[in-house]
Amino acid sequence: MKRTKGLTAALTAVTGLVACAGLIGCAGPEAEAKPETAVPDRFYSQQLDWKACGDPKLDEAGAQCADVTVPLNYAEPEGATLTVAISRIAATDPARKHGVMLSNPGGPGGAGLDFMVDVGKAMTPDVRASYDLIGMDPRGIGRSSRIQCHWPVGMGLRSAGVDAAAFAESAAAQADLAARCATEEAARLPYITTRNTARDMDVIRGIFGVDRISYYGTSYGTYLGAVYTQMFPDRSDRIVLDSAADPDNYGTVGMMQAMGPANEAALDLWADWVAARDGEYHFGTDRAQVRGAVQDLIRQAADKPIRLGEYEVDDHWLPLVLFVGLDSPQQYGMLAGQIRTLADAAAGKPVELDETLNATLGYALKARPEDNSPQMAVLCGDVAAPRDPAFYLRNVEAARATQPVFGPFSNNITPCAFWAPPAEPATQVRNSVPALIVQSTGDTRTAYDGAVALHRDMSASRLVTLKDVPIHWIFGRYENACAYSAVNTYFRDGTLPAEDVTCRAD
């Protein structure tokens, strides 16, 4: 094995990392809630300079883009400012226009300027006629005064690996990522949060001169949408939350832990699919054989990282390839080909790196085109994470028996363990704002139980359940007549279903 530290030695090494927390602002209690500060009218009344977006996808859709100026810190609105980039695809029939629809594609950390191009294609013509569709790169992301931590890798999420020594490596790497962000972005990090993005959305609402905004969000975007309804309930119109996060479980611990069982279940389905095609992929003829081949490959990568072109894929990163591929059954063939390529490379066979695997590894290992530090800026800025590395290692080890592939990933330590405390308490969502929640039972990113919890927290909501499909993000990605009809009906006339709805794959 390349790692020889035992459990005690690894814990001792990792625990020392917490000492760096004081250097990056981890010491001290979290801030208490403060009343909202009045935002000067000049932010709400600013005139936008609409221009071509300079992006082929947006330009082809006829979108225009503009920059919105918002306070860096809403508690000090006369201080420093940020730029938030937005796009607008105009309603196709201004005479029938109902209003303005904002959006978010998830992440957190996802740039959303072009998001509504895809979502708009799932809308019926009468819905498209009714809304100006607004894409947005949230603060600190994409074109919106992007956070730049200059990480040596792309991702702040990775597996803990196969043993305690691998976990110690992982924890050291995560502490380094947090320290880099603190060094590069200390002045802005406290304000790259969901609550501030919700405030930015309300500034955008004011700029458009409307009393209320409609909204479509998926994945993390459901949390942002829910937070907006909590902070601005009287300014929320028709709200659709697709593939929903549990706001009480949001963050890098509970939300991540919920991904473990969901991804193991999806891995079972994928293994069945691959086993039925053993003549093509050669991993075995039943679920157990395919799973065994995957787990053997992870152990092999721990002994000797798999060399694939410019990449070295070890036990920290191989589970991430699986995680990326398992969020849609439409990707099963793509993922099987990727794992076959990695297995062949591990065996010393000549391989070709396809575009999809190159994209995943380039983003994760090489920060190409940019690192995903804005994701951690939002997650760590929203919710405090436990500081003690032993907490994470105990959870990793406890999960291995039932979650051999994803337990070490979904329970691993993240940069949030070494981050400054949030500037504001986490938002508790409890309201009666009407909303439509859409969720698949097999979702691997935001587990189904989270949508049920959000449905309970938003007492006037309705839940549309897509049964027995392991898909994340439905409307605009996974065509389903039942779910699409519910969303389009709500956006068209504001009518929620009389009761919760259960849909099945077409």
TrEMBL record:
Name of the protein this chain belongs to: TAP-like protein
Lineage, uppermost ranks: Bacteria, Bacillati, Actinomycetota, Actinomycetes, Mycobacteriales
Keywords assigned: Hydrolase, Signal
Signal peptide (residue range): 1-21
Native source organism of the sequence: Nocardia tenerifensis
Origin: domain of life: Bacteria
Keyword Hydrolase included in the entry's annotation: yes
Record Gene3D superfamilies: alpha/beta hydrolase
UniProt domain Peptidase S33 tripeptidyl aminopeptidase-like C-terminal: residue ranges: 404-503
Molecular-function GO terms, alphabetical: hydrolase activity
PROSITE patterns in the record: PROKAR_LIPOPROTEIN
Family indicated by similarity: Belongs to the peptidase S33 family.
PANTHER family referenced in this protein's UniProt entry, alphabetically: 2-SUCCINYL-6-HYDROXY-2,4-CYCLOHEXADIENE-1-CARBOXYLATE SYNTHASE, TRIPEPTIDYL AMINOPEPTIDASE
Occurrences of domain AB hydrolase-1 (ranges): 101-293
A Pfam family reported for this protein in Swiss-Prot or TrEMBL: Abhydrolase_1
